[in-house]
Amino acid sequence: MRNGSRSFLAFLRKKGIALSAKRYLIDAMGSMAMGLFASLLIGTIFGTLAARLGLPWLQEIASFASGAAGPAIAVAIGASLGAPGLVLFSLCAVGAGSYQLGGPLGAYICAVVAAELGKIVSKETRVDILVTPTVTIVSGLLLAMLVGPGVDAVMTGCGVLIMKATELQPFWMGMAVSVLVGMALTLPISSAAICASLGLVGLAGGAATAGCCAQMIGFAVMSFRENRWGGLAAQGLGTSMLQMGNIIRNPRIWIPPTLASAVTGPIATCLFGMENGTAVASGMGTCGLVGPIGVMAAEGFGGAMDILALVLVCFVLPGLLTWLIALPMRKLGWIREGDLRLDL
Predict the structure, then answer these.
(1) At what angle do helices 202-222 and 191-198 cross, to 10 degrees?
(2) Please, are residues 238 and 186 in contact by the beta-carbon 8 Å criterion?
(3) Count of CB atoms within 10 A of residue 236's CB?
(4) Tally of CA atoms within 13 A in the half-sphere of 146 that contains its CB
(5) E-strand spans in 92-251?
(6) Contacts of 292 (CB under 8 A, 6+ apart)
(7) Is the dihedral of CA 254, 255, 257, 261 positive or negative?
(8) CB under 8 Å, gap of 24 or more: what pairs does 158-162 form?
(9) 8-32 pLDDT, tens per residue?
C-alpha cells in the first residue's frame, strides 16, 4: 500500500501537481485576479471612458472585454498551475461555462480542478488530442453544473448581506470592511478576487476601496524616507504586499495604515457616501488607479463633492493619517530606521 501511495505521489510530482494551500489559495487566486483585471476590469475602465467621452466604439470594445472574464480567469489559473498547452486552451470552455453558472468563485474552483485533472491525463495516451480536452472540459463543466449555482448563491448572498449591513450601519461596517479588505490587500491573497466573488459594490465597495487605498498610499508615504520615489510609486501604484516581509519581521509597522483605514472607511461611508461601481475594483486600491476609476464608474458620480471625496479618501487622508500615526511610533522605537526598507 505504501509503495502504491509513493508511486502515486511520484506520478503527481512528475505531472507538476503539488497539493498545497499556497499553490491554490495564493498563486491560483492571485492569477484569478489577473484574469479579472485583463477582462472585466479593463472592460470597466474602457466603459467608463466611453461614457465620459461619448465614444460608442470604445463601449463596444468594453463589452467584449468584460464578456471574456470567465475564459480569462480559467486560463490565468491554468497558467499559474503550469498547465500544458492543450489543457490551457481547453480551459477557455471551462471558464466560460463555470463563470456563467458560478460567478468568479465558481470559475476559480472549476478551473483549478479541471486544470489538475487535465494535467494528469495529458500526454498519457496516443490520442491525447481527444483525451486531454475531453477530460478537462467535461470535468470542469460537470463540476460547474453541480456546484456552480450553489457557490454563486452563497457568495451573492454574503455580498448582499455585507452591502445591506453597510447601508444600515455605515459607521461600524464601513470601518470593518475597510480594515479587513485593506489587510487582505497587503496579505499574499487576492482582495480583488474576494471582492469580485462577493460582488462588493455600493457603499461597501467604497469602504473596501478606502481600506485598500489606506494600505497602499499609507505604506508608500510612511516608508518614503527609506524608499524614496521608487518606493512611493511601487507601493502607491503597485501593491503594499511588497512590505509583507518587513511586516513579518516587525508587525508594528502594519499599525499606522491599518488605523488609517479604520478612519477613512467610516469617512467614506458616513460623510461622503462614496460608492464603488465595480466589484473587482473595490479590492484593487490605487493599483494602476483602478480603485478610484471604479469609484468614478459608480452611478451618479460626477459632482464636485464626489471628486473631493475621491481625492481625500483615496489619496490625501491615507498618506496624512498614516504619517501622523507613525511619527510617535518612530519616537517610541516601535518603528526603527530601515524597518520599511524595500529591495527595489
Answers:
(1) 170
(2) no
(3) 24
(4) 8
(5) none
(6) 209, 213, 286, 310, 314
(7) positive
(8) 158/198, 159/197, 159/198, 159/199, 159/200, 159/204, 159/279, 160/199, 162/198, 162/200, 162/204
(9) 777 777 777 888 888 888 888 888 8
Residues 6 or more apart whose Cβ sits within 8 Å of residue 142: none
| Per-residue pLDDT tens digits for 191-202 | 888 998 899 999
Q: Which residue in the block uniquely carries the three cell numbers 519616537?
A: 331
CA distance 136 to 247: 40
CA distance 46 to 50: 6
What b/e readout covers 107-132, taking b as 16+ CB neighbours within 10 angstroms? bbbbbbbbbbbbbbbbeeeeeeeebb
Give the DSSP letter of residue 344.
-
Measured CA to CA, the distance from residue 216 to residue 291 in angstroms comes to 11
Cα–Cα distance measured from residue 32 to residue 98, given in angstroms and rounded to the nearest whole number: 13
Radius of gyration of the chain (CA): 22
Q: How far apart are CA 264 and CA 211, in angstroms?
A: 7
Express each pLDDT in 119-178 by its tens digit.
Answer: 999 998 999 999 999 999 999 999 999 999 999 999 999 999 999 999 999 999 999 999
Contact 121, 132 (CB under 8 A): yes
* Ramachandran bin of 157, using left for φ above 0, alpha for ψ from -120 to 50, beta for the remaining angles: alpha
Rounded CA separation 104/195 (Å): 10
Are the CB atoms for 313 and 286 separated by under 8 Å?
no
Identity of residue 299: E
CA neighbor of 222 nearest in space, from 323, 78, 151, 318: 323
Question: H/E element holding 106?
Answer: helix 85-121
